[in-house]
Design brief:
The protein has about 325 residues and is α+β, with helices and mostly antiparallel strands. The chain folds into two domains: about 170 residues, Alpha-Beta Complex (Cathepsin B, Chain A), CATH 3.90.70.30; about 140 residues. It is built from twelve helices and ten strands. Strands 1, 2, 4, 5, 6, 7, 8 and 9 form an eight-stranded mixed β-sheet that branches. Strand 5 and strand 6 form a beta hairpin.
Length: about 325
């Protein structure tokens, strides 16, 4: 006999019964976002009734302001952060507690953590809470919103949408060429002052732009990442896929930043004029990066990056983006 529990029903019958059931399924859809972590988080929050839009979630979390790159501009630049520290901090600015269960490939407790992860995922799903996890169907973050214990599969939602898998084997969790386990369990939402969390997000934006993360040894972050990216184009070291993918991710993020700041400027706070100026400058950053995405489209055409004139024009666009972002950060 197959039993399906949907939102609320699993919690009603109790965890033990849900764990024995054949199927738990929660209606969740991945958010529309090039930053996969925040697309997954948005999907989970929407399912819980949190209706804040992409711009607000990206802005308050700080992901609208993130930028990282290394000399080859690899696609993993978009997820270059200290997951166990930076993810809880980002979600805290959204008002949520969370637990990050992480295990790298050399973690001696890796198998134990995998066992705990599977148990916690089923527990969360049974309570009506989908979870965010790394590398489910693709090397990005996605949502686990169901489990079929009889078939040994998780129901998933990823940035690929209908082009991606709807289920993955349980054994795939934490697997891949570099087997990394990262599962994010969102907790309760706490009431926070809108102005205070917005100011915390802006402090993060300035700190990230001007700082170097010691945990990210091979990556430059913030304004310095632009210089690394520019150098990769001039020296011909940029990866075609990573260059085009990072451009899409960061162009979308800066668009979110501009709209987020513009929205804050309209709230009548004492620094409204400053916020409006910063919003305008981030709009200029977005224009430069969007023009860059037209030059280096995604999926990538290797010939585009092979062209010296394209690389020169791309470097010029990044230099302009760097100028406007530096001014925006100074404004903040």
């Amino acid at each position: 006999m197959r039993i399906e529990y949907r939102r609320g029903e699993a919690a009603a019958v109790g965890l033990a019964e849900a764990r024995r059931s054949a199927l738990i399924h929660l209606p969740v859809q991945f958010g529309s976002n090039w930053t996969s972590l925040m697309g997954a988080v948005e999907g989970v929050l929407r399912a819980s009734g949190d209706e804040r839009d992409t711009d607000e979630l990206m802005g308050l979390s700080g992901f609208a302001f993130r930028l990282a790159a290394r000399p080859d501009v690899s696609p993993d630049s978009v997820n270059a952060l200290h997951w166990a520290v930076d993810i809880p901090a980002a979600l805290a600015r959204l008002g949520y507690s969370c637990e990050v269960l992480y295990a790298g490939p050399d973690d001696p407790l890796r198998q134990f953590r995998l066992t705990v992860a599977h148990s916690r995922i089923v527990e969360q799903l049974a309570a009506g809470r989908p979870v965010v996890a790394w590398r489910i169907g693709m090397p990005e973050f996605g949502v686990i919103h169901g489990v079929d214990l009889a078939e040994g599969t998780y129901a998933v939602s990823t940035a690929l949408g209908e082009r991606g898998p709807s289920t993955i084997p349980l054994a795939r969790l934490g697997s891949g060429e570099v087997p990394v386990l990262c599962v994010i369990f969102l907790g309760e939402r706490y009431p926070l002052s809108e102005e205070e969390v917005a100011r915390a997000a802006l402090r993060f934006a300035v700190r990230h732009a001007n700082g170097k993360d010691p945990d990210l040894k091979s990556f430059d972050t913030g304004l310095a990442a632009y210089e690394t990216w520019i150098a990769s184009l001039r020296e011909g070291t940029a990866d075609p896929f990573g260059n085009a993918y990072c451009a899409q991710v960061f162009a979308h993020a800066r668009g979110c930043a501009a709209r987020f700041l513009s929205r804050l400027a309209g709230k009548g706070w004492r620094n409204a004029q400053t916020l409006a100026l910063a919003a305008g400058r981030y709009s200029k950053v977005t224009e430069c990066l969007e023009e860059f995405t037209e030059l280096f489209s995604f999926p990538p055409d290797p010939a585009a990056l092979a062209s010296a004139s394209n690389r020169q024009k791309g470097a010029s666009l990044l230099r302009s983006a760097l100028y406007y972002e530096r001014v925006a950060v100074a404004t903040l």
